[in-house]
Fold this sequence. Notes:
The chain is of the alpha+beta class and 229 residues long. The protein has eleven helices and six strands.
Amino acid sequence: MKRLFCLLALLLGATLATAATPPPTRGPAWASTVRVTPSGSHLIGNPAAAIKIVEYISYTCPHCSHFQTQAEAPMREQYLPGGKVSVEVRHLVRDAVDMTAALLANCGAPARFLGNHNAFLIGQPRWIAGYANSTDAQRKRWETGPYPVRMKAMASDLGFYGIMAKRGYTRAQADACLADPAMAKRLTAQTQEAGRLGIEGTPGFLINGLLLTGTYDWATLESQLQVRL
């Protein structure tokens, strides 16, 4: 009986000790935290990060696709989670197809942006061939008529509706985003701001407001991050 009481006391003590120890707390999930800035760009990560990257991209730019393919995993797994680095994605719209993709990438709530962004940018090799090999008839549809109608033709011919369907959007939802004049205005303003900042190509980068020249690949940008960490 004495042994039984001792065993119960030990079990009770262990239970109380466990209850008294608070569970470990987790910090913010910065890698999946997305906020819309006043200019309409998307800020990924800790808004108060010590190292603030601004990235200008174009969805029809092969260098941007290559960069995102290389940078997406290390940024998500290594640099963003600690809260020391943030990335603000802005748009430098190069052409009408780029505008069409950008309007769709910006479609929906801020939390949807990163998935949309990757779908168009990392998936670019699968749809860009249709752009490069477009027929005269297709280009005529893209270049004549009201702008929303032209963008719907581009979205149809280049498979953008299929990309959006995989992201959970209906065609009606995608069309509503293609016909969003306020978003088109914000994208145009970001493009104009890129020119004022001296961004001459995409991807273009600023770190803490400093324009980086000659940086178009992940290895070069990462070396700049390492110097500042």
